[in-house]
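hey m, so remember when u said the tokens were messed up on ur end? i reran from scratch. heres the input so u can diff it against urs
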Amino acid sequence: MNLSEPLLSTQGARRRAAGLGVLALAALAVHLLVVSGLEGAWPRPAIGAPAVQTVQVRVVDAAPPAEPPTAVVPLAEAVPAVPAPRPAARPALPRSRPIPAATPSPPAETLAMADVAAPPALAMPVLAVLPVAAAAAPAVEAVAGLDSVPRYRTQLPPAITLRYVMQRGGLRGNGEFSWRPDGDHYELRLEGRVAGLSVLTQVSSGGFDAAGIAPLRFTDTRLRRGTKAANFQRAAGKITFSGPSTEFPLRDGAQDRLSWMVQLGAVVAAEPSLRSVGAKVVLYVVGANGEASVWAFDCTAIEPVSTGAGTVNALKFVREPREPYDTQVQVWIDAAQHYLPVRATQKSGSNDEGFELRLQSVETPP
């Protein structure tokens, strides 16, 4: 019988058990190392806290949050691509509103033609649209007080030449007023010049009768406007014009737009009662554009007037306008100059710059 064989079997079993023990210890060591490394990577729980997994609860207020919660999207979708800049465009009109059509220009018939030729494309000339009162020719028969224009005694001045400073708006020049009576005939001329250029020429010619100056023809010439005339047809008893077909009856003592300046002074020279404030002189005055009206001059003051020969005290007469665009006249007449104007102003309407004459010198022909 062999006694060593059981012993060898027992020793082998012990060796295998020891080897298994070593492997178990090694596995336990590795396990402890792994657990301790993971534990150091996370925050440690507080001392005494139960080693259980906790659940966090968030209380949400009833009011809505100030900012909406941000949706969690993939990174590629969270950062949108920035589009290339585009030029600014006008905001589009709402589709429910139609785009208005352009406002049409006013018709050519409403535009005034003031020294401007009509465009070649127009078949008809452009006409000025004027107020009815300004466009219609004044009817002399409708003027109140026409038949009451009195006949005055007159004392006519001798031949004389008056030189004035002439001004209209910003334009300044000189004017020459020439009165030439010769027997039963006269010629009266007013010429205005600016920078040596003739801008105004008025001529009145005629004779005399029981009412004083009796014009036969009056012409009015303006720069770039041509000449217009009023004709006093004494044999036919009417007044006609070179332009319009208007006719007026020839009244006793009728004057034109230039002769009234001499006639007014001749009436005052002959009537001492008219040389005081409150006096009135009424004249029937005709222009070259087909107009005629009663001019009532009121003596409103005795005023000093500065002239080229010094200051003189002059009688001031004023003719007030009777309707829009009517003529307003102020005239200062001096006894030393046969009651002829030493100053005169004239304007038509509130927008008119006005026209003024102021005496500078006097010349008496031989």
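this time it looks ok to me. The chain is about 15% helix and 35% strand. if urs says something different then somethings off w ur setup not the seq
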